[in-house]
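Practice set, problem 2.
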Amino acid sequence: MGNKVVIKGGTSKELTSEDLAVLKKSSKLSEDEIKDLHKAFWNDFSSGRMDKKGFVKYYQEIKDEADTTGVLCDHVFAVFDQNHDGTIDFHEFLLAVAAGTPGDLDSHLDYVFEMCDVSGDGHLDAKELANFLSASLTIVGKTDQKGEFEPKKLAGDVFKTLGIAEDKKLTKEQFINGCKQSPNLRTLFGGGN
């Protein structure tokens, strides 16, 4: 995600050894897992492109059961639909699936940043962060988003904690380093204490 992976022929039915090597490295999935997902993907999406409805089906089967509203799924799809054509290819799908389960703190915070950065410009503004926080609060059942749970205020607090003016944009490096240094931000973004 942070390192955009580009593979020639993203809609090709052939899964080359080069593709496998890149996908194994970027997704942390085994070769057999990649091959199984590739076969299932092509069985269900013979055009080589998955629309949002298909993505939701797969994502709900293998990801966060707490996302009953589909809000996080919407964010994930938007991030991986790089050209905003309403579809993703197998490689984009595989990276979306794999990115949801990062192992270390840096990878987790990288993933959170990418989920917030729906515009894909590599920077995070207060509005993007507020939208993500609103979606996250909805997922955990906080539908009354007022007072301390008001997403715009929370986003402003994050920017303030990181020493960035709200009218500016955060880089990924600023976001990750700031969250690593602040136990409150690590907790807020699910990175532990």
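Problem 2, part (b): a different protein.
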Amino acid sequence: ASLLISSLHDAFSTYSATEKQALIKKTNGIFELKVTNDAKETATWTIDLKKEGTVHKGNGKYKADVTISLSDDTLTDLASGKLNGQKAFMTGKLKTKGNIMLATKLDGVLKEDADEDVFKGAKAKL
């Protein structure tokens, strides 16, 4: 998951101000991802697509609109397209707290930088 989020961060940092604004307008929300690995260690990442258009490890400056708890494997499957968010939620692989409608936009956000090489090595240390 670390590589996956890092790749997303890199993709966001290459966007022009206009591209960031378009993504912010389209998404309009702050996601807080709580990702748990096989060793049951949890890390938090914040994807801010409401104020700044940034991705970083840890809690954000602003309150998250939705907190999403999921496993490292589930996050990798969502980003690679092997699993969609709705199915993950319905099967209990993904839990949300807050704006559930915003959570449905996570699939699109993760696919902003759909790089196959990242998915192959996505299971990494949190």
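Answer key, part (b): Strands lie at 29-36, 42-49, 54-57, 66-71, 94-98. The helical segments are 2-14, 17-27, 72-80, 85-90, 100-103, 106-110, 116-120.
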